[in-house]
Design a protein that fits this description.
The protein is built from nine helices and nine strands. The protein is mainly α and 284 residues long. The relative contact order is 0.11.
Length: 284
């Protein structure tokens, strides 16, 4: 092991010669670079594991706990961050449903409305009041409540994010974490889609198009499972068909009553004939 000479990040606020905003930005940029470029991130970035070096550079210590993200998980995280930044609860719901492992069929509409409430609660605040890591934790907790099991890598990431955010709040509370990290997310997203227009409308369309392409196979699988288990039912409603059906039922009732009346009449004549009685001048 090498010895690294530096100042503990928890002591930087009291030490002269440090640019607190630059230190905070370097910590956030290092975290996003680990997530979006390397796919390997420090899982326990508490203040004792981060040193600040001359020039506001940082050094990470003790990699006893790390998290790994596959390329697919990186892209899912990118699209989730962009969807949160665009306040698009529909895309957030489908992304979380896709990266997790549902224990059963998840009602996307209910999940989406719960996510909308969370986004409104957090993103209605000023930038320096938003707790981004807490937002991530609440979204993951919401997924669990909707019976979606999230991979452990995201749980480690949520824990590390909360630690880093608390550190940033002490160093430079006005720093907007999403603003710093969004360029990394966009770069990876553009590398996949390469859109010519980076407007919010195009970004939302891309997110929904990607979600549709990746969700359809899962939804078809769910339909087939329900069909095999006898849970699949199709209801067809047509006013014209119902009107014709009503007429058919009315005709059926009339025929039934007509046959019943004819039967009673014939039965009555048979009984009178058997008793040898004269009815209306006719001898039976």
């Amino acid at each position: 092991l090498d010895y690294v000479e530096g100042t503990k990040v928890s002591e930087v606020t009291a030490a002269p010669g440090f640019d607190l905003e630059r230190v905070a930005r370097n910590i956030i940029e290092a975290a996003f670079r680990q997530l979006f470029e390397d796919g390997l991130f420090h899982g326990d970035p508490h203040p004792g594991n981060i040193l600040v070096l001359p020039g506001d550079r940082i050094a990470l210590l003790d990699f006893g706990l790390v998290g790994r993200l596959t390329r697919v998980q990186q892209e899912a995280l990118v699209t989730a961050i962009v969807a949160v930044a665009l306040r698009d609860p529909d895309s957030v719901a489908r992304i979380l449903n896709r990266i997790g492992v549902p224990d059963g069929h998840t009602p996307i509409a209910e999940f989406r409305e719960d996510i909308r409430h969370i986004l409104d609660r957090y993103l209605g605040l000023k930038l320096d009041e938003i707790r981004t890591a807490t937002l991530l934790r609440d979204l993951l907790d919401l997924a669990v409540r909707h019976r979606i099991r999230i991979p452990k890598e995201y749980a480690v990431l949520a824990k590390a994010s909360i630690t880093i955010e608390g550190m940033i709040r002490r160093l430079y509370p006005k720093l907007d974490i999403l603003e710093v990290g969004l360029p990394y997310a966009k770069e990876l997203l553009f590398a996949r889609f390469n859109p010519s227009d980076a407007s919010s409308t195009i970004m939302k369309s891309l997110l929904k198009l990607q979600g549709l392409a990746e969700d359809v196979p899962g939804q078809l699988t769910q339909i087939l499972v329900d069909l095999e288990g006898g849970k699949f039912r199709v209801n067809v409603h047509s006013e014209d068909v119902e009107r014709v059906g009503g007429h058919v039922r009315a005709i059926g009732v009339m025929l039934h009553l007509g046959l019943l009346a004819a039967g009673l009449t014939a039965g009555g004549l048979f009984v009178l004939g058997a008793r040898g009685e004269t009815w209306v001048g006719v001898t039976a």
